[in-house]
């Protein structure tokens, strides 16, 4: 069994704080969950990005996901870089915990 270990960067933590303040953590959680579940990092991201009310929220989410190793573009296409699964898993756990705690 291989132990997966990844940590969030300081930049990601700052973006998570801003996401929490904007109350968009649950939307980001759904997006990341979908990307991990699909495994291919392609498909439904475009529709999910369009669900954000403001362009700033969309751009914040794109930046957060890109720091986890996935090039996520506004049209919904996504390209993994440098084996992003571990970093996306760490992001998923952080988003899940924030979503749970913010109730």
UniProtKB/TrEMBL annotation:
Q: Which residues form a coiled coil?
A: 3-30
Molecular function terms, GO-annotated: phosphatidylinositol-4,5-bisphosphate binding; phosphatidylinositol-4-phosphate binding; phosphatidylserine binding
Superkingdom of the organism of origin: Eukaryota
* Gene Ontology biological-process annotations: defense response to bacterium; pyroptotic inflammatory response
Q: Which UniProt keywords apply?
A: Coiled coil
Q: Which InterPro entries match?
A: Gasdermin
Whether Cell membrane counts among this entry's keywords is no
Asked whether the UniProt record includes DNA damage among its keywords, one would answer no
Its recorded name reads GSDA3 protein
Q: Which organism is it from?
A: Loxia leucoptera
